[in-house]
Amino acid sequence: MEIVLLGTGSPIPDPNRAGPATLIKAGEGGLEQVLIDAGRGCVMRMAAAGSLPVLLSGVLITHLHSDHLCALNDVITTQWVMTNEPRPLRIWGPVGIERFVDRTLDALGPDIGYRIAHHDDLNWGPLVEISEVQAGDSFELGSMQVSVHPTVHTPVEPTVGYRVEREGKVAALAGDTIPCAGLDQLTENADAYVQTVIRDDLVKLVPVERMQDILDYHSSVEQAAQTATRNKVKTLVLTHLVPAPQPEQYDEWRAVAAQHFNGEIVIGDDLTSVSL
Asked: Tens of pLDDT along 223-240?
């Protein structure tokens, strides 16, 4: 498996970082592809990673915060217009994802009508198969086994993380969460643990109440490192970086994590990848 950080940004717009999104490539030639979350710009980042929505085996959504799924409409539309025959896009997510997709398709109604009217070979609308998941669920995605684990991002409920296993390798992908029992289960003995993080020491310096509010429902770099150590993770992958560091600051971020974790620590730009 290869894990590609398509977008390492946050709700704060950044010209260099797309919104939260991660791609897993597996199988021969990396042809089994799974998208985890769909933050702004993720389809453009998919193209840069040698992927496109039409190649996806499925989409996994961790929670319904806008920065994690605002580009899902782009994923749905691009997959639809690039298919040569009716083929559904499969989406898994917590309770509420079906309603979100239904409303997205309703908003896209005029566009869908225009395209069907203009293209003789396109006589079907977007096809989407939605599965609302909850903790304890598991399912197969091609050669990958996926299990669903609860996370804590209150007041956002429910939120989940996904544990993806293939040929003895484990990728644990958490969305926004603080340390919790479900996160420990998700990351236990994982080869790679992808976690959205904030530098709480830096956020505390920002004299804006709305910034201070994010401290109580995101993992800090230290907490992510402690989770990784507690659960014997091999590689810790940091994403959704707040505040977004410059490349010359990456070593500083790694040093903060290294105080609590002695495994490999990955932090970088969009399109940073980790091979398992």
From this structure: 999 999 999 999 999 999
**36: pLDDT confidence band, cut at 50, 70 and 90?**
very high
276 falls within a domain: no
Domains identified in the chain, total number: 1
The dihedral built from the CA positions of residue 157, 158, 164 and 170, taken in this order, carries a sign that is positive
Reported as a single tens digit per residue, the pLDDT across 23-34 is 999 988 888 999
The answer to whether 14 is a known catalytic residue is no
To the nearest 10 degrees (0 to 180), the angle between helices 109-118 and 97-107 is: 50
- Domain containing residue 25: 2-266
First-to-last alpha carbon distance for the chain, in angstroms, is 5
pTM of the model: 0.97
pLDDT tens-digit series, residues 99-116: 999 999 999 999 999 999
Q: 152-182: buried (b, 16+ CB within 10 Å) or exposed (e) per residue?
A: bbeebebbbbbbbbbeebbbbbbbbbbbbeb
Set 14, 37, 67, 200: catalytic member: 67
Secondary structure (3-state) at 15: coil
271 found inside a domain: no
